[in-house]
Design brief:
The complex is a heterodimer. By secondary structure, chain A is mainly beta. Chain A has strands spanning 3-5, 9-13, 18-25, 29-37, 44-49, 53-57, 60-65, 70-75, 84-94, 97-102, 106-111. Chain A has no helices and eleven strands. By secondary structure, chain B is mainly beta. Classes of the chains: A mainly beta, B mainly beta.
C-alpha cells in the first residue's frame, strides 16, 4: 500500500516563509501533487512534480526528490488567506491503473 | 466554463438506508474520481471512472459503488449505511493527460 507523512499543523506569521514536508512510501510512483483546501471549501490544485527539482508558481514552490521519497511545499510572503489545509498526494500506477493517494493534510495557521 | 457540480450539498440519512450522490464534471472532462473525507483521515480514494469504465478502486467495502454515464456524469451509491459513513464525499474531474484535479464542493453526508 501507499503511505504519506506530513505534519498535522504548522503555524507561521504573516510575511514569513513556511515549508510543509511530505515523505512517502509507495510503489509505482509517478509524481507528487499539492492541494490547498480552505475550511468548508473544495481542494484546489497547487502543483505537480514528476521530476526531481523545484517548481515555482508565484509565492508557492514545490520540490521533489524521488531518491529520498520526499517533497515539500514552500509558501513565501505568507498572507492571512493562506490559512488552510495543505495535502500532498502521490500518483501511482499499478496493473489496475492510476491512483492518487492523499496525505492526512497539514493545517497551516497564519497569524498577524 | 462551469466547475464540477455535486448534488445534493447536504444529506441526512439513517443507518441501513442507501444513498445516491451525483457529480457533473467540467465539460469535456471524461475522468471522474470520488473521495471520502473525514476529519483526521484526509481524502480516501474511492474509485475513478473514465468513459463509463471503472479504472481503479480504493479499499472500501462493496457497499460503495459507482457508475458513469455517457455524458461523463457520475453517481456514487452507498447501500446499508453505517454511522461511520458520515463524511464529506468529494468528486473530482480532470482532462485527458492532465494531472490537475478539479474538485466539486462535495456532499456532506450525515448518518444518524
Amino acid at each position: 500500500g501507499q503511505s504519506l507523512e506530513q505534519p498535522s499543523e504548522v503555524t507561521a506569521v504573516e510575511g514569513a516563509i513556511v515549508q510543509i514536508n511530505c515523505t512517502y512510501q509507495t510503489s509505482g510512483f509517478y509524481g507528487l501533487s499539492w492541494y490547498q483546501q480552505h475550511d468548508g471549501g473544495a481542494p484546489t490544485f497547487l502543483s505537480y512534480n514528476a521530476l526531481d527539482g523545484l517548481e515555482e508558481t508565484g509565492r508557492f514552490s514545490s520540490f521533489l526528490s524521488r531518491s529520498d521519497s520526499y517533497g515539500y511545499l514552500l509558501l513565501q510572503e505568507l498572507q492571512m488567506k493562506d490559512s488552510a489545509s495543505y495535502f500532498c498526494a502521490v500518483k501511482t500506477r499499478d496493473n489496475a491503473g492510476n491512483m492518487l493517494t492523499f496525505g492526512g493534510g497539514t493545517r497551516l495557521m497564519v497569524k498577524p | 466554463k462551469a466547475g464540477v457540480t455535486q448534488t445534493p450539498r447536504y444529506l441526512i440519512k439513517t443507518r441501513g438506508q442507501q444513498v445516491t450522490l451525483s457529480c457533473s464534471p467540467i465539460s469535456g472532462h471524461r475522468s471522474v474520481s470520488w473521495y471520502q473525507q473525514t476529519p483526521g483521515q484526509g481524502l480516501q480514494f474511492l474509485f475513478e471512472y473514465f468513459s463509463e469504465t471503472q479504472r481503479n478502486k480504493g479499499n472500501f467495502p462493496g457497499r460503495f459503488s459507482g457508475r458513469q454515464f455517457s455524458n461523463s456524469r457520475s453517481e456514487m451509491n452507498v447501500s446499508t449505511l453505517e454511522l461511520g459513513d458520515s463524511a464529506l464525499y468529494l468528486c473530482a474531474s480532470r482532462g485527458y493527460s492532465n494531472e490537475k484535479l478539479f474538485f466539486g464542493s462535495g456532499t456532506q453526508l450525515s448518518v444518524l
